[in-house]
Amino acid sequence: AARRDQLESGATEAEIAAARAQVATAQAEQRAAREAHDQTMKCYDIGGKEVCPALGPLEEQARYRLHAADEALAAAQAQLDALLAGADDEVRAAEAAVWAAAAQRDSAQAQLDLLKAGAKAEEIAVAEAAVAQAQAALDAARVALERCEVRAPFASTVGAVNVRVGELVAPGQPLVTLGDLTTLRVETTDLDEIDVARVAVGQRVFITFDALPERVFAGRVTRISPMADPGAGGVNYTVIVELGETDPAILWGMTAFVDIEVRE
After folding, report:
1. Which residue of 103, 139, 153, 206 shows the fewest CB atoms closer than 10 Å?
2. Tell me, what's the pLDDT at 223?
């Protein structure tokens, strides 16, 4: 049952518990930031005059802290909601993490800017380190978000999808089969050791397909396998032939006959 729940939700109980803890932590920080902000904004009537002792640099610092706390809480809640919603929304969780990291980076930068206005070198160094740490967290969150998207390494067409939504995928398991339809290739399966000695890369080839018997396609040999493939009735070598033209009627996996022009 636990296995089924994990597949359906896309998140483990530990991940959900961690997300809940992040929400609780963000809520506590938001409360503390709001209390500090309210305390900073307090003014008193002293001798008929309104005195606001904490206004000034502390006011901006309190505003930035409260703003960062609000954004961090919203991001943590969004991440928890995405985990509870299921695997289809895990991308939103990654986006929320980027949002939270960006808010923390902005908050750290704002704190650094305030300190530079009049602070000790040690305090500025600590703030600069906080900015660097927040930037590193933001970069890591962006990388995690990019990993939510599977990208083809080249311009191609999806020929087959090998996994289903919600299915666990092992490292190295092919997700989809891609093909470059701009260039079609044919592999020979029965070229024996006697005939392969007469074949060279660049030689012209004529190809016919069982499904298109009335048409002849031209091509050239682009590769000859250096290793033999033991087969029935002898030793065969695989030769790769590249078609010089393409046709929508030619589909992957079609059976073809290859006629190679060889030197006598």
Report:
1. 153
2. 93
